[in-house]
Amino acid sequence: MADRSRFAAVVLAIGLLLAVGIVAVASNPGLLPTGEYERTTVDVLDAESGETLASVTVRVADTRSKRYTGLSETDSLGANEGMLFVHGEEDEYAYVMRGMAFPIDIVFVDSGGTITAVHHAEPPPEGTSGSDLTRYRGRGQYVLEVPYNYTVEHGIEAGDRVEIAGEWGPSGGS
Do you know which InterPro entries this protein is assigned to (predicted)? Predict the structure, then answer.
């Protein structure tokens, strides 16, 4: 009889842990492993001349979990490295610097490939709660994150265009 009650207690404990885990993941999708990021190239073109202003090799965050994690598990970016966040549709989005250790530029791009907003984002002070994080807002289907002041150094601004190689771009592949 003692073996049955011990078995029941173990089953109950496992069930409770499983339930807590499900609730934790449901309320915080960033707890799930993100898997490997696919990579592609993003070219930024001047709106007037069509001249290439920059070419960035990016990791593609195209799932909810990958978008939630973003660059927060990254120590730094190389000179022409970044991350491309791909959303299912164009909308208003807000990005935060959750868990970030370095500053970045956040570039919003609409569904046709036009840059709609550029933000220069600093990491939050140590201990900043999620509700107190600065929200960098913009309209787009894509968000490109690059090293801090990359946009200034390359003359990138709202109205310029991006071309995204592979399946993620506005044309579905270029």
Answer: DUF192 (IPR003795), Saro_0823-like_sf (IPR038695)
Question: Cα separation of 148 and 90, whole Å?
Answer: 25
- Burial-class residue 64 by CB neighbours within 10 Å (0-12, 13-18, 19+): middle
3-state secondary structure of 47: coil
User: What tens digit of pLDDT does each residue of 78-105 get?
Assistant: 999 999 999 999 999 999 998 888 999 9
Distance CA 163, CA 17 (A): 46
pLDDT above 80 (res 50): yes
Of 54, 50, 34, the residue nearest 42 (C-alpha): 54
Collapsed DSSP state (helix, strand, coil) of residue 131: helix
